[in-house]
Amino acid sequence: MHNIKIHQQNDTEQLKQIIKNYPFATLVMNTKAGLEVDHLPLILNHDNSVDVLQGHIAKANSLWKTFENDQPVTVIFHGPNCYISPNYYPTKKENGRAVPTWNYVVVHVKGTIKAIHDNEWKLSLLECLTAQHETEQSEPWSMNDAPTEYIEKMLPAIVGVEIKIESMLGKWKVSQDKPEVNQQGVIEGLSNSDDTHLLQMAELVKKFSIK
């Protein structure tokens, strides 16, 4: 990933927060069959003093058959992102020298993957996943809401996935390279929208660009 110094994010807590807030990940690996790419929600956990990403795929998904345990993988998490119009820049009115760009936040995780077939592990994972993603529901659903025999029949239909994290690389491209007057213009332009993604980016520009 092209990542100049001004855009580099090395704060581990900031990186982990993006993973927690935007858990739907892109999994990339090179296998004997060629390059494989898949998409799945992952949760960040701490297991045996090591940070890991955990999730599951359908057993019908042949992906788990294409890799060996401890194979290297890359996982990509996309945070807020949006189009930035030159119209946001006050300097454009002075000399017209402005072009569009795209602001975004992304985290690349490198590690090693393994498949897990143990039903107790998979059940624990599903309980963690649902607990995390049901928190904002007025009446959060839990695994106990479904009949035990139904869940037991469903478990063999999935394969657990665990990725031991070896490194994390973050890129926060949020107008840091623009003069402050244009950074303020981006904040004002994005803040005029009701779109959640634009408002989130406005806050990121304010936090990481304005000195």
Automatic annotation (TrEMBL):
Organism: Vibrio rumoiensis 1S-45
Source domain of life: Bacteria
SUPFAM superfamilies the UniProt entry points to: FMN-binding split barrel (SSF50475)
A Pfam cross-reference name: FMN_bind_2
InterPro entries in the cross-refs: Split_barrel_FMN-bd, TR_PAI2-type
PANTHER family named among the record's database cross-references: PROTEASE SYNTHASE AND SPORULATION PROTEIN PAI 2
Protein name: Transcriptional regulator
